[in-house]
Amino acid sequence: MTNENRVSEVRTSQHEPEREQRIFTFKATQLIWLFFGILEALIALRILLKLIGANPESPIVALIYGFTYLFLFPFEGMIGTPAIGGMVLELFSLFAMLIYGLIAWALERIVWVLFYRPRGPAVAVTQTTTSETTNDTTRR
Questions:
Q1: Taking Cα atoms as reference points, which of 73, 75, 102, 70 lies closest to residue 91?
Q2: Residue 46's closest CA among 62, 32, 58, 59?
Q3: Is residue 140 scored above 50 in pLDDT?
């Protein structure tokens, strides 16, 4: 008795043109928003700490003040800073948050315009493989 097996295998794969560039654009815009989101949160924390009159000698408060000062010194003295006792309202910090938010939005849009490519039709590749095997089996 002859036993013939035919095995067919069909593999289909799809390739999206410029998929890697879309992924790069997406990741770059995520990094922009992450960086500026952290910066905005630290500036907001600084405003809160100044408003409640936190001790600037505290290590964590000194760290937050020192780091955010790097981004706030261009805006310092631009707007008056009302103070009552040990509490200070840094209006220039609020203005800086607005400006940094606009910068983040503009950078994100620039990256999007320069690098994003719209999704085109997917290119499908079909590969068919056929193999034949012959087995002779004798029954007794």
A1: 75
A2: 62
A3: no
Q: Two tokens at 103? A: 């910068």
As a whole number, mean pLDDT of residues 16-25 equals 81
Rounded-to-integer distance, Cα 140 and Cα 134, Å: 19
Tell me the average pLDDT of the chain: 84
Residue with tokens 């700490």: 49
pLDDT at site 137: 54
Q: In angstroms, what CA-CA distances link 113 with 29, 36, 43, 89, 92?
A: 11, 19, 29, 38, 31
* pLDDT per position as a tens digit, 43-68: 999 999 999 999 999 999 999 999 99
Give 117-125's long-range contacts (Cβ < 8 A, gap of 24+).
Answer: 117/17, 117/18, 117/21, 117/22, 119/16, 119/22, 120/16, 120/17, 120/18, 122/14, 122/15, 122/16, 123/14, 123/15, 123/16, 123/17, 124/12, 124/13, 124/14, 124/15, 125/12, 125/13, 125/14, 125/15
